[in-house]
Amino acid sequence: MSESSTRDFYDELARDYHLIFRDWDASMAHQAKVLDGLLHPRLGPGPHRILDCSCGIGTQAIGLALAGHEVFGSDLSPLATTRAAAEAAARGARLPAVAADMRQLPFGSSSFDVVLCADNSLPHLLSAQDVQEALVGMRRVLRDDGLLVISLRDYDDARRARPATTPPQVSETPDGKVINFQLWHWHEDGERYDLEHFQLTPARSTWDVRVRRTTYWALNRQQLTGFVAEAGFTDITWHTADSSGYYQPVLTARRPSPPH
């Protein structure tokens, strides 16, 4: 992963990220409800101490904080974490957030009940070494029997189909409609792709077009399951969108307690 290019992508997107959603606050509430539904049967009702290590502007973290959990955020983008903390405060929630690489989490060992890495963030890491380094770090900051939660695109299907684009998403704003779509440029290995994110916003009699670029590794479930197991997690479970209600497949796994 090029740390600077990925950070630049999210720094540039931080101001406008909410425009990806038709209703950002409604999405926050819905995602928090679904994620809470994954935590409750595995950890009890809580509240839980949660690290969102790819918090972005706070889509998952704010919703979970408003649901009563003690949430901390980190993200590669300092502009995104600054906005996340401010948006949380504006809604009456507390979200301490710091800029940090998920491969080098600046938190003490066994600090959290849950580590969340959502919104297809882990696939920005483009090598097995980087993915393994991140997962080992997430395991370190989890308490014994703590829960890892990762969401990412359904790459099993995507790697077979190799889509070149995503359907346009249209959201309403006070200034008019905003259109988002992506172009995917697949590498020769069939696993990685360069993404161009287009965002069109109304500007008088024309459109303001913003293009941001980044790269992903389209990790399939078998690959990610193997990496998570190698990092020392157990009880690895996949939750499909149909079963969980979340908009992406979700993996949950536990940091095992040491043998007595």
TrEMBL record:
Q: Which residues form the Methyltransferase domain?
A: 50-146
Q: CDD domains annotated for this entry?
A: AdoMet_MTases (cd02440)
InterPro entries, A to Z: Methyltransf_25, SAM-dependent_MTases_sf
Q: Its domain of life?
A: Bacteria
Q: What is this protein's record name?
A: Methyltransferase domain-containing protein
